[in-house]
Amino acid sequence: MAQPVSVAQGSYGMISERTRLRMIERLRQQGIRDERVLAAMYEVPRHLFIDQALATRAYDDVSLPIGQGQTISQPLTVARMTEKLLEGRSTPGKILEIGTGCGYQTAVLLKTGAQVYSVERLSGILDKARLNLRNAKLVHARLVHGDGHQGLPDVAPFDGIIMTAAARQVPPALLPQLATGGRLVLPIGDQEQHLWLYEKTATAIQETRLEAVRFVPLLPGKQ
Predict the structure, then answer these.
(1) Are 168 and 220 in contact (CB under 8 A)?
(2) Where are the beta strands (DSSP E) in the chain?
(3) Which keywords appear in this protein's UniProt record, sorted alphabetically (predicted)?
(4) Residues near 207 by Cβ (< 8 Å), separated by ≥ 6?
(5) Are 150 and 173 in contact (CB under 8 A)?
(6) What's CA 138's distance to the chain center, in Å?
(7) Omega before 153 within 30 of 0, i.e. cis
């Protein structure tokens, strides 16, 4: 892991190192093993990605509202999806994120060394993500206002695709944008949702159902 700092200071006050370390230890106990993911989760100041009124809950293992009916996922979900996305890769490579949200998952991916392209359908939420990432001094992601169902075919293929909203099925445009050897991690379902992992080989797509989750729905178009 990266060297710890004594205190994390953000515009929402002081968040102690101990609080962030407790989150990392909880993630370890919950089964997260990839040290790249744990280091990234430690280094990203989650309190900068939520409203000031909720800052005291920033490192709790809960999802929190970020406005316009959207949420920031609980740390375990972020860590789990990131770990599955990077599993088996020595370097993260080029990643497509569907659903930028507040930018927290984007930030974690950047901290692992990934080259990140992120699509968000809500312009107001995307503006917040840009501000949050600037405040966190993480400005290297390419953020796009668009329909996540379409992905970004102009810059495909991607080594990994991660979706932070629940689809009823895999959007047809996404798997062709995945490189051979790449992974797609996303929630699928309506009332009952599960994470799914799709692995693209030279000859087939391998599917694996993972744990139950709860995400906002993936909606078409952009606003």
Answers:
(1) no
(2) 7-10, 13-16, 64-67, 70-72, 94-98, 115-120, 142-145, 158-163, 178-189, 193-200, 205-213
(3) Cytoplasm, Methyltransferase, S-adenosyl-L-methionine, Transferase
(4) 196, 197, 198
(5) yes
(6) 14
(7) no
Residues, the chain, total? Answer: 223
Question: pTM value?
Answer: 0.89
6 CB-near residues (< 8 Å, 6+ apart): 17
Please state, in angstroms and rounded to a whole number, the distance separating the CA atoms of residues 132 and 179.
30
Report pLDDT digits (tens) over 7-25: 333 433 346 788 899 999 9
Quote the CA–CA distance of 36 and 9 in Å, as a whole number.
23
* Whole-number pLDDT of residue 28: 97
Q: Which residues contact 127 (CB under 8 A, 6 or more apart)?
A: none
**Residues designated as active site:** 73
CA distance to 7, 21, 70, 97, 107, per residue, from 89 (Å):
32, 26, 31, 17, 19
